[in-house]
């Protein structure tokens, strides 16, 4: 196998797939290095396999899961079907202080977490890109919405996003395919909220990277439901379903699975990264690959781990880390606070198919005014459902009539709203290399120090209050507050630790995701984020990646890299 390429991309997940596609389409020979194994949709996707066809009827081999995936199993999507798309925690350890648990949910295979992700995609606005500058938490973003908007367009046109245009400044509209339909109870709540709060509180259908019409050779969704198990019709966006085939079609992609990148090599004389050192995941052999530019897309914390582990005379504390910022300002969103209730009526209506999407209640706090207790904001996700089979465990009955009534008579409509809150960038939320722990390949593991702060906690209180208030306004009954704090990491939007900024003294990356001190090294996954906003972040990683790839190739053409 050749060892010299124009570009190396590390990681084949959501952002790495985009780097590979954009760089190959711009004419570069690209080596895509992926730590995990290959995926064959024909045999590995299992969304249509039924519980009775599974060895453990969907419950999983619980002793094995407890032993090998004690952390991953806490993710709702890690079950007997899709557990294979989540890492083995024994082989991929990390440590935390005892009083600061962190749930690091990862996928290690071609496609990364793009196979299991929830596909919710929301643009950021200037409210988000300007937030750090406005309230002084974190450093100012080096870009604004106008810089990234064309790249959101570019990404959305390719991945296919279904959604409803709402014309709200804080949640810009995009290049939408037709929206998925509301359920009747959701339409009811949307209309009641509009009556009570006007355009201040807008409930819209989730914007998601799932096709509602055939698109670029991929088929429209048929509402089978369990997307985290794969999608043989390629109806939702994943690297395997979309970006990797596009990159391969150029004839310029070399994908090497089972390639664990251990570090990046650096030439101090030229001030350039020269290549990467890989440990073959199966043979443990060490191999060096060279390239003119390198894109790090191993996921937020893995990319930072590689940088921290890339030590040289010039950078004894990690590549590009001249200011001690690398590893700091880790963020995740917060989740688990809101309310649910019963929506009376509509009992002659039921939903058909398993819509793989919910509703989105757009941020309304600190948009035009300022809340006295906290900065930044939150949005709600959730949806309406009709209780069915599951309610049987709480009902009294016996025999054939009882079973029949469970099938024919569904329960009332329920509606839930759960908050996704913005997390502030704080210096004391950080990762470092653990002094003793290593992974299966002998690479130092991370020690993760992360907790939510006072601002997030103040938001949680308000989420519960406003969710209850809105369900009341919608005429819901039997309203119950949801107050379940989950440990950071479990929202699976971990980001930051190699942030972008305007000043090399306080950030690791410039406005085009280049490491300030190593301009041919780009970090375009979530590590680059200077703040977290409250929107699901992956579409912003994709747009930043496409933007950085275009910039990199321009610089190469001008012989500046
Ligand atoms: C259940 C679930 C639901 C989610 N829902 C949403 C959602 O609705 N919306 C949203 O925006 N986000 C969601 N996310 C988060 C989303 O999946 C991530 O933000 C996204 O995948 C990050 O992309 P990435 O390219 O940085 O990393 P990943 O997609 O994780 O890919 C990283 C890749 O790098 C590889 N890698 C790691 N280390 C190395 C190494 N040393 N050498 C070589 N390769 C390496 C990994 O094996 C992996 O394939 C969800 C995640 C999960 C698990
Ligand atoms: S619900 Fe739609 S997107 Fe999800 S797996 Fe089924 S067909 Fe694919």
What key phrases describe this protein's structure?
six-stranded antiparallel β-sheet, alpha/beta, single chain, eight-stranded mixed β-sheet, binds flavin-adenine dinucleotide
The helix count comes to: 12
Regions with little confidence, pLDDT below 50 for 5+ residues: none
Portion of residues within helices = 10-25%
Order of helices and strands: EHEHHHHHEEHEHEEEEHEEEHEEEHEEEH
Q: Which structural class matches the secondary elements? A: alpha/beta
* Mean pLDDT reading: 96
Compute the separation of the termini in Å: 25 Å
Relative strand content? 15-25%
Shape: globular
Radius of gyration: 23 Å
* Biggest sheet architecture: 8 strands, mixed
- DSSP strand count: 18
Bound molecules: flavin-adenine dinucleotide, iron/sulfur cluster
Give a written overview of the molecule:
With 561 residues, the chain is of the alpha/beta class. The protein is 23% helix and 20% strand. It contains 12 helices and 18 strands. Strands 1, 2, 6, 7, 8, 9, 17 and 18 form an 8-stranded mixed sheet that branches. The chain has a 6-stranded antiparallel sheet with strand order 5-11-12-13-10-16. Strands 3-4 form a two-stranded parallel ribbon. Strand 17 and strand 18 form a beta hairpin. Helix 1 runs parallel beside helix 8, helix 1 runs parallel beside helix 12 and helix 6 crosses helix 12. It is globular and about 75 Å long. It starts with a strand and ends with a helix. 51% of the residues are buried. The model has no long low-confidence stretch (mean pLDDT 96). Iron/sulfur cluster binds next to loops.
């Amino acid at each position: 196998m050749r060892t010299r390429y124009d570009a190396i991309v590390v990681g084949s997940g959501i952002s790495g797939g985009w780097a590979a596609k954009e760089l190959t389409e711009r004419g570069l020979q690209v080596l895509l290095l992926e730590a995990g194994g290959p995926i064959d949709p024909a045999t590995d996707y299992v969304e249509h396999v039924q519980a009775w066809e599974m060895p453990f009827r969907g419950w999983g081999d619980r002793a094995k899961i407890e032993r090998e995936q004690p952390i991953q199993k806490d993710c709702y999507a890690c079950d007997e079907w899709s557990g294979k798309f989540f890492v083995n925690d024994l082989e991929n350890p990390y440590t935390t202080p005892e009083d600061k648990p962190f749930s690091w949910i990862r996928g290690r295979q071609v496609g990364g977490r793009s196979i299991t992700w929830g596909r919710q995609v929301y643009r950021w606005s200037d409210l988000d890109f300007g937030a750090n500058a406005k309230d002084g938490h974190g450093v100012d973003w080096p870009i604004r919405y106008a810089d990234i908007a064309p790249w959101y367009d570019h990404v959305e046109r390719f991945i296919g996003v279904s959604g409803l245009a709402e014309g709200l400044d804080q949640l810009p509209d995009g290049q939408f395919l037709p929206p998925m339909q509301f359920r009747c109870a959701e339409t009811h709540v949307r209309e009641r909220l509009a009556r009570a709060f006007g355009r201040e509180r807008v409930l819209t259908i989730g914007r998601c990277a799932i096709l509602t019409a055939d698109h670029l050779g991929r088929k429209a969704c048929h509402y089978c439901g369990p997307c985290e198990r794969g999608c043989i019709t390629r109806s939702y966006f994943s690297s395997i379903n979309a970006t990797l085939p596009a990159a391969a079609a150029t004839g310029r992609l070399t994908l090497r699975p089972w390639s664990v990148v251990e570090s990046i090599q650096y030439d101090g004389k030229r001030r350039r990264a020269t290549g990467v050192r890989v440990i073959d995941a199966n043979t443990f052999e060490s191999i060096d690959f060279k390239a003119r530019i390198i894109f790090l897309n191993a996921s937020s914390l893995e990319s930072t781990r590689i940088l921290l582990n890339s030590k040289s005379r010039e950078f004894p504390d990690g590549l590009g880390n001249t200011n001690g910022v690398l590893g700091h300002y880790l963020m995740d969103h917060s989740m688990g606070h809101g309310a649910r209730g019963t929506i009376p009526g509509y009992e002659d209506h039921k939903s058909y198919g398993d819509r793989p999407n919910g509703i989105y209640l757009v941020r309304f706090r600190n948009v035009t005014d300022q809340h006295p207790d906290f900065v930044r904001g939150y949005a709600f996700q959730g949806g309406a459902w009709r209780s069915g089979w599951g309610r049987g465990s709480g009902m009294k009955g016996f025999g054939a009539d009882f079973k029949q009534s469970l099938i024919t008579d569904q329960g009332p409509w329920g509606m839930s709203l759960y908050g996704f809150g913005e997390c502030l960038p704080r210096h004391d939320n950080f990762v470092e290399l653990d002094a003793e722990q290593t992974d299966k390949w002998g690479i130092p593991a991370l020690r993760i120090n992360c907790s939510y702060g006072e601002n997030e906690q103040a938001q949680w209180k308000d989420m519960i209050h406003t969710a209850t208030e809105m369900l009341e306004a919608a005429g819901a009954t039997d309203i119950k507050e949801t107050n379940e704090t989950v440990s950071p990491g479990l929202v699976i939007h971990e980001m930051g630790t190699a942030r972008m900024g305007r000043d090399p003294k306080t950030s690791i990356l410039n406005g085009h995701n280049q490491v300030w001190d190593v301009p041919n090294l780009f970090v375009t996954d979530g590590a680059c984020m200077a703040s977290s906003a409250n929107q699901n972040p992956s579409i912003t990683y994709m747009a930043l990646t496409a933007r950085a790839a275009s910039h990199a190739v321009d610089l190469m053409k001008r012989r500046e890299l």
